[in-house]
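Please annotate this fold before class:
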Amino acid sequence: MLSLAAAGFYVVVVAAVLTALLTARKQRQQPWHSRVWLVVALVFVALAASRVYSLEEILRTELREWLRAEGAIAGRRVWQGYLIAGALAATSAGGLFACYWASRKVKGRRNLAALIALGSTVAMLMLVAMRIISLHALDQLLFGPLKLNWVGDLGLSLTVLAAAIYYVRILRQPRR
């Protein structure tokens, strides 16, 4: 039931993002704005489909079955730890670089809103990847009492939704 609720929320995000996309095109904004909003919309459509059809769970199950068949299930914690550490380090470094680059190169609220939506979408994809590779310690962190999985999922989705709404509001404001 929670997966269907998440899929429904993703559809709301898609609607807001498509509104931002159409507004960007109608108001003849920089072409990269339209591309960003399109990519974000496509990712959230895929996330909604993944929730409806339980694609994440299927991928996780298939990965575990493959590991069992290869006889690697017992040692998976070792390589999963390295894989997760590497993914987190790469993501953190990429995120820090992107923030630094954006602070130096990107000016304007519209540009910033589009980049925040894109950055949050990339972070959402990393969260999905973490859920799929599923290390026991990471599972306890993501799915434990704090439910950081849902906090991250909802927080990132809300950030994209807010960025899209903010972008549309900026463009629809009368010019002074």
Q: What stands out?
A: DSSP finds seven helices and no strands in the chain.
